[in-house]
Amino acid sequence: MDTFDNFQSEYGGIGDDDTASIISGYTQRTGVGPSKVTLNAADALDLDALSIADDHVANRRSGLANDVAVSLDDDFDMNFEDNGIGVDLPEYACRQVTFSPAASPFLIESSSHSYCGIHSPASVVKCLVCSKWFCNSRGNTAASHIVNHLVRAKHKEVVLHSESPLGETTPECYNCGSKNVFMLGFIPAKSDTVVVLLCRQPCAAISKDISWNTALWAPLIEDRSFLSWLVTPPSEQEQLRARQITYAQINRLEDLWRENANATLDDLEKPGVDDEPQPILQRYEDAYQYQNIFGPLVKIEADYDKRLKESQTQDDIVIRWDQGLNQKRIAWFNFPKLESGEVRLAVGDELRLRYHGDSHNAWEGSGHVLKIPNNISDEIGLELRRNDGVPVDCTHGFSVDFVWKSTSFDRMQLAMKTFAIDEKSVSGYIYHKLLGHDLEPTVLRTQMPKRFSAPGLPELNHSQMYAVKSVLQKPISLIQGPPGTGKTVTSASIVYHLAKMNPGQVLVCAPSNVAVDQLTEKIHATGLKVVRLTAKSREALESSIAFLTLHRQVAAFTAHTELQKLIQLKNELGELSQPDERKYKTLVRNCEREILAAADVICCTCVGTGDPRLSKLKFRTVLIDEATQAAEPECMIPLVLGCKQVVLVGDHQQLGPVIMNKKAARAGLTQSLFERLVLLGNRPIRLQVQYRMHPCLSEFPSNMFYEGTLQNGVTAPERLRKNVDFPWPVADTPMMFYQNLGQEEISSSGTSFLNRTEASNVEKIVTKFFKAGVVPGQIGVITPYEGQRSYIVNYMQYHGTLKKDLYKEIEVASVDAFQGREKDYIILSCVRSNEHQGIGFLNDPRRLNVALTRAKYGVVILGNPKVLSKHPLWHYLLTHYKEKQCLVEGPLNNLQPSMIQFSKPRRTLNKSMEQFRRHDYSDAEATSGAPVLNDARRAATSAYESNFYRTHDPLGYIPSDVQSLKSSTSGLPHFGAAASFGPSKQKASAGQKRATYASYASSIISQDVAGAPGGTDASSVAGSQFEHNGSIVFSQSDRLRRRNSLTSMAGTSDIGSISAYDYKSQDSVIDADDSESQYSHSAQSGVTEF
C-alpha cells in the first residue's frame, strides 16, 4: 500500500491532531557510521513532551512581509524578514546591548562570528562547511539563526555541541548517510525509545523496513527552526540578554562572509558596504544620463552572474562517452548542482570538462550543451569542440565548470554607448521618445493596405485589425496581448505589411529563442523571405523552422559549388585543414551577406541582434515580441541599428524581466522598456478576443487583470470534452480548487519549498486524467517552486499506479517556463501552507495571471485556502471558486463542497486600488470619442515619491475607477459585460478616430502617477535632474548638444570608450567566430538568450 496515502489522508493532509500524536526522539550515535540506537536510561528524554508542535517555539512565531521574487525561488529568503518576532517579550528586547562575556554566561567570545552571541550548548549547532556556531533562536527574524545561515550561505550540514544532551553528533540518514539537514526527517520506531533518521528521498519514500512506519516521517526542520528535542531553543532570558541582530544585518553579514570569512558585525558600519546604485528614472535629460544610470546596473548584474557561474564547479563526475553524426565527441553526465536551482542551464551554454586522474594525462576541453535534464532523463549532453586527446577510455574522476562569457552584457553596454554617441543609431523622434521627452504626436505618411489580414494567416478580428492599422501609422507603438488573444498572428501580420510598404528589411526579435521561432514560423507562412539568425552553438538543434536558419540556407546555397564541396568534406571528416578552413570561413561569410541582404525579414533574439554579421546592416523598422520580458538595456540592442519605427508587443500583466542581483532589481532593472513607456503616456493597444480558454476559465482573469474587457472567441461547448470522465464539481464548468492542508517543507536545496500532500494528490489527479483518456502531452503541471517540481517528478515515478513512461511525458515546470504556452489541462500546485511565513511570490498577481491562463479545457488548483485567503488577491479567487461551487475537499471519487472558513485578508483590494490605474488602450476606447485624460486623477494625491514607479506591484492590477465595478455578495470585482464579439460591433467614423488618435499620444504622466494638489508634472516624477517644460519638439540637430555633456559619462573621459563597463573574459576576444551562445538561457528563467 502507498505509505504516503496514510500520511496525507484522503482529505488533504495531516491536521494538527495528527501531528500532535507523533512522538519524537533522537538516537543517532556519535561514531563513524549511520545507525539507530536506543537511548540510555541516564540520557533518556521525556518522549511524551517531544511533540512536533513544540508550543515553546510556536509562541514566538509571527508573520512577515512578502515581496515579489526576481527569480524562481528568490522569495524563499525574503520570508525571513523581520516582522516583530518576539511579541511576547518585553519591548526592550530588541534594543542593542553590549556587555562582556564575563558578565553574561549566555554570550560567546567576541572573536566568534555567530549572530547573537548565545552559546548554551543545548541551543547551538556548528555549520560543518564554515565552522561557525549558530543558535536555534529566532531573535528578530522569522527563522532561527541556524536556518537563516544555512539558507543564506547554502550550507546543509551541521554538528551538535559536544555538551548538548545528544553529544557531538552529526545528523545523517540511516540508510544512505546523507547529511543534508533539509532532506532529513525522523520516524519513531516501534521501540518507544528509538527514532530513525531518513532522508526524504529516496530512503523514506521507498523504505520497506517492517520495524518502522514511513508514513510517520516528519522533517527535522519545521517552521524554519530545528525541532526542539534536537536543538533546544534558548530561554526567554537568554534571548533578552543576547545581541539583537536584524534580518537586514544578517543578510549583509552573510554577503560579507562570502568575501571575507572573518568579517564581523562591526564591518557592516564601514563606508561603502551598503552602497546602492542610482535607481532608474522615467525621463532622462540625454543619452549620457541614460547610460550613466543603466550602465552600472548592467555591470552589477554581469558581475553577479559571473560569480554565480564560476562558483558552480562540480567534482567526481561520471562520464558516458558517445560520438555524434558530425564525428564530434559527446559527453553524457549528471550535474547534481542543478537540482538546487542556484544556477540554470540551457541548450547552447558552454561547459568545461577537466580530468586529473591516474588513468590518463591531465586534460581539459570545452563544449556546448546539446541536451539538458528533463522528466525523461537527468543527463546533460555536452558536445566537445575538439576531439584531440579526449580521454574516452576514462569514465570517472572528471570535473565540470561553467564557462562564463560576457557577450550579452557587452552588447547591452555597447548598445547604450551607441545610443549616446551615434546620431544615426535611431531617428530623432525615437531618441527623444525613449528618453521620455514630450513630443507632439506624429502620424507617418503611408499608403494603407486595403486588407489588414496577411496571406497564409487567420483572418484578424476587430481589435487585431485596429492594432495593425494603428501601428502602420505611428513611429512608436505598444501592443498589449493578453493570454490567448493571438498576438503572434497580429505581430506577423504587422511585419508582413511593414515589409511590403517600406523599403529595407524588418528586424524581428524577442528575448527568448522559443518566442522568436514561433514568430518566424508565422511570418514565413505569409510568403515573405525570412532568415532566422541563431547563435552558432544552436546550429545543431532541430526545430520546425530549422530550414529558415542562416546556416541551413548557406548549406543549401547551390550557387557556390566550391563552398558546397568544403561543407561536404567538413561533414565527412569533422575538421578541415587550416588552408581549407580559412577558405571555408571566407566563403561562408560572403554567402551569409548575400542571404541576409536578400531577406525581407531577419529574426533573432534581442541579444542576437548584436551579432557581428548584422553590424553593417541598418533596420528602419524593428518589432520586439515579448518586450515585457526583456530588461530595458536588452531592448536597446536591436533599436540602435538605425530604427525609425518601433513596435513593442507584450503584456505587462504577465511576468516581466527576471534580474538575479537584488541591488540591480531594487534599482529598477526589473522594469521593462514597455512598462516605462506606458508610464510616460504611451497607451498600449489591447487585443481583446481570447481563443484559448473555456469561458469559465477566462472570467476571473478578465475581471481581475483586464477590467472585464476580454471577449471569448470560443464557446463553452467547443471547450468541453464530453468523453473525458473527470470529476469536475460542476459538470459544465471544468475548474476546481482542491483543498489540501498538508504543510510545506524546505526542499533539499535549502532555498525552495515542497509540499508532499499536494505532490501525492497531483499524482492522483494525473492518473485520473490518464484513465479518462487524456494523453500526457495534453497535461501540464505548474508549480512556483523548484523543490516541488523536482519532488513531483520523482514522486510520480515512484508512486504512479500506471506505466512509468506515461508520467515521464508529463511536463512539470515553473510558471516562468509556461509563459507564452498552453496545455489542454493545467494542474497548479501552490505549495505554500504554513501558520506564519506567508505565501511568498504567490502573491505576485502576474504570476497568478500566467498560471490561470495556460489551460484550454480545464484547471485544477491545489492549495490551502486558509493560508491563501489571508492575501486579498487569492481571497477573491477563492471566493470566485466557492461561488461557482468549485471549491472542494475529500477523495477524488467523492468530492464535497469545502466548508472551510476563509481568513480575513490583511489588506483590502478596494483600499489598495486607489493608488493604481490601468494604462491599457483598447480599440473601443480609441473609437469612443470620450476624452482619454481624467482630470480627477490629475488632481489626486501621489502615493509615490520615488523616481522608480512600478506597474506590476501586488494588487496593482485593479483599476481605480471603482464606478465601473459591479459589487457582488462575495465582494469579487465584476466589470460591466464586455461587448459581444462579432461583426455587429459599431465603428466610429474616421474623423472620430483621427481626433482621438491625435489626443492620446501626448504624455499623460500626470494621469499615471497622481500628483500633489494641483497635479504632478513629469519633472516631479523624473527627478530634479531634468527640468520638464511641457510639450517640446526636438529636431535631429538638437542631439548635437550631447557632445557638451561628456562629464555625465560614467567612468570614462573618452567618448569612444566604455572601459568603465568593459568586463570581457580575460581569455576571450569577441569576434565574428565568437558570436555563439555564451549566455543562452531562457529569458523566463531570468537570463538572456541570443
From TrEMBL:
Its main location: cytoplasm. It comes from the Eukaryota. The keyword Iron does not apply. It catalyses: ATP + H2O = ADP + phosphate + H(+). GO terms for molecular function: ATP binding; DNA binding; DNA helicase activity; hydrolase activity; RNA binding; RNA helicase activity; zinc ion binding. It is found in: Cytoplasm. Keywords: ATP-binding, Cytoplasm, Helicase, Hydrolase, Metal-binding, Nonsense-mediated mRNA decay, Nucleotide-binding, Zinc, Zinc-finger. Residues 127-155 are annotated as: CC/SHH/C. CDD domains: 1B_UPF1-like, DEXXQc_UPF1, SF1_C_Upf1, ZBD_UPF1-like. SMART domains: AAA. Residues 105-260 form the Upf1 domain. GO terms for cellular component: cytoplasm. Residues 113-145 are annotated as: C3H. The keyword Transcription regulation does not apply. Residues 173-203 are annotated as: C4. GO terms for biological process: nuclear-transcribed mRNA catabolic process, nonsense-mediated decay. RNA-dependent helicase required for nonsense-mediated decay (NMD) of aberrant mRNAs containing premature stop codons and modulates the expression level of normal mRNAs. Also capable of unwinding double-stranded DNA and translocating on single-stranded DNA. Belongs to the DNA2/NAM7 helicase family. This is Regulator of nonsense transcripts 1. It comes from Ceratobasidium theobromae.
